[in-house]
Amino acid sequence: MKPASARPFSLFALSLGMLSLLQLPGALAQTPALDVPYVPTPEPVVARMLEMADVGPDDYVIDLGSGDGRIAISAVRDRGAKSAYGIDLNPERIEEAERNAEQAGVSDKVSFEQGDLFKKDISEANVLTMYLLSTVNMRLRPVILDTLEPGTRVVSHAFSMEDWEPDRSDIVGGARVYLWIVPAKVAGSWRVEADGESFNVELTQRFQEVAGSTESQQAVRGRLNGNELRFTVNDKLYVGQIEGDRINAVSAEGAVAGWSAQRS
């Protein structure tokens, strides 16, 4: 049997141990829980992602889960993007990315932020890049469709967005790259004026795919490319640019000329 005098010392030591855990400098409590493990995108894949998105001097690129910053840096250094921004939960990656941007000589046009990508306003992006996971992509999908302007290019390394089919895809060194172009919203009723006549059309939309029918039950089949809509009615091709509640004809080979539509 232990002497009674040992008990107070044991309790004191235990109390100090618990206190020391509580007074750790926040490292355990403040370490962010990462949604995605860090695996850098190979440089040839980075180049192809930016090429598929046709990044150029007018573009503001946002990279979600930016890691060491290579996509945002390459967008400016190699593709001449106006500016780029990367966000990542891991503060170590942000520090690394900032050093890399400095070494690449693009720190005046590329910035990085430690934070939660789900809380970031991405609405200003012309190009959105990501190497995340399918589950994360699916959480982002409604934000992408409802927040980004039609025509914004979205590129993902390796992971899809399930039933939202990409507009293009490619394989680079065994890695799949997906490109989507955010479609305008056209579902609803439209009054079409063409060749001195008019007809009503009711459109439905599933991402970039468009279907519907006219008031005389003629089938409509079409597809969106950002703000551009192509559809056929009675074997006639209509190509137009969506501008709010109007669609104005765009010149295209074999297409009806001078037509327009108004949302009704």
Automatic annotation (TrEMBL):
Residues in the signal sequence: 1-29
Highest taxon above the source species: Bacteria
Record carries keyword Flavoprotein: no
Xref: InterPro entries: FAM173A/B (IPR026170), Methyltranfer_dom (IPR025714), SAM-dependent_MTases_sf (IPR029063)
Biological processes, Gene Ontology terms: methylation
GO MF term list: protein-lysine N-methyltransferase activity
Pfam families, alphabetized: Methyltransf_31
Protein's name in the database: SAM-dependent methyltransferase
UniProtKB keywords: Methyltransferase, S-adenosyl-L-methionine, Signal, Transferase
CDD domains the UniProt entry points to: AdoMet_MTases
Residue span(s) of domain Methyltransferase: 60-121
UniProt organism field: Phytopseudomonas dryadis
